[in-house]
TrEMBL record:
Gene Ontology terms: biological process: endocytic recycling; late endosome to Golgi transport; protein transport
SUPFAM superfamilies xref list: PX domain (SSF64268)
Reported function: Required for retention of late Golgi membrane proteins. Component of the retrieval machinery that functions by direct interaction with the cytosolic tails of certain TGN membrane proteins during the sorting/budding process at the prevacuolar compartment. Binds phosphatidylinositol 3-phosphate (PtdIns(P3)).
Keywords: Cytoplasm, Golgi apparatus, Lipid-binding, Membrane, Protein transport, Transport
Domain PX span(s) in chain numbering: 1-108
Name of the protein this chain belongs to: Sorting nexin-3
Compartment(s) of residence: Cytoplasm; Golgi apparatus membrane; Prevacuolar compartment membrane
Keyword set includes Transferase: no
Membrane topology classification: Peripheral membrane protein
Family label: Belongs to the sorting nexin family.
Amino acid sequence: MVYQRTFWKLKCGIPKLKTNIPAFKLKYSSVRRRYSDFEWFRDVLERETSRVNIPALPGKVFTNRFSDEVIEARREGLERFLQNVAGHPLIQTGSKVLSAFIQDPNFSREVYNY
């Protein structure tokens, strides 16, 4: 059995995606997203895929939010979130925004009427 995986690497603060999952058009991609984009994305996934329990995002930080430790912890939490949703078969086949959010550097929320 061949397992399909998505790998994330942090390069200059931007997650770099390497995947062999057929749902994604590109084998390699790198995009920049704000935390608010992740909040929007998670909300859309919950509405698109009601049969899947979408994992929580790492919590917002209000103190020391620019310290290296806090930034790294948040990055790791967002990476886990992306690995979970990108690797879920029902989300891969049922989401209209998954591939664009993860792979399109020009992604815009306004394109999607949610």
